[in-house]
Amino acid sequence: MTDQDKISEEQTVEWIKAQLQRANKHLAENGVLFDTIVMEESRYLAPYIAMWKIKDNQKNYYWVLAGDLPVDFTPAGNAEDARGALNYFSMSWQMKAENIRATNALDETQMKYADLLQNRAEAMYSFQSDEKLWT
């Protein structure tokens, strides 16, 4: 991240709110009704990635990802912590991108989506590998 990438504290707060709204909408569209956020386990790297650990109204826990990428979520059992969840999404998205390429080679929109997933998966892997972001 360069100095040009840095945003003000106020911009960060607004960005986090906007990403949480996106995430909550995506969860609701997928039948998961948000209850609370486990703040001590959630992480943000504004304006790129927001990762929340949430509890739904059925007392199930999920990792929810939003930011400069598609919103996604997975049961919390797939990763021990936010860093592990980032790794999980990175690997999962790489596989999704390859599957899209293998089955939709003639669909330009799907190919662009596969490229987006691959690009963001590589960025997530880079972020989760960067020790200074996790200390």
Describe the structure in your own words.
The structure is a single chain. With 135 residues, this protein is an alpha+beta fold. It has one domain (3-133). Helix content is 48%, strand content 19%. It has helices at residues 9-29, 82-103, 108-129, and strands at 34-37, 43-45, 49-56, 61-67, 72-75. Helix 2 (82-103) packs antiparallel against helix 3. The radius of gyration is 15 Å and the shape is globular. It starts with 8 loop residues before the first helix and ends in a 6-residue tail after the last helix.
Secondary-structure class: alpha+beta
Number of domains: 1
The beta-strand count equals 5
What is the overall pLDDT average?
93
Please report the number of helical segments.
3
Q: How big a fraction of the residues is strand?
A: 15-25%
Estimate percent helicity: 40-55%
Unreliable stretches, pLDDT < 50, 5 or more residues?
none
Largest sheet: 5 strands, antiparallel
Output the radius of gyration.
15 Å
The N- to C-terminal Cα distance equals 16 Å
Question: How would you summarize what this structure contains?
Answer:
The chain has 135 residues and is α+β, with helices and mostly antiparallel strands. 48% of the residues lie in helices and 19% in strands.
Q: What are the SSEs and their pairings?
A:
Layout: H1 9-29, E1 34-37, E2 43-45, E3 49-56, E4 61-67, E5 72-75, H2 82-103, H3 108-129
Helix pairs in contact: 2-3
Index terms:
globular, five-stranded antiparallel sheet, alpha+beta, 135 residues
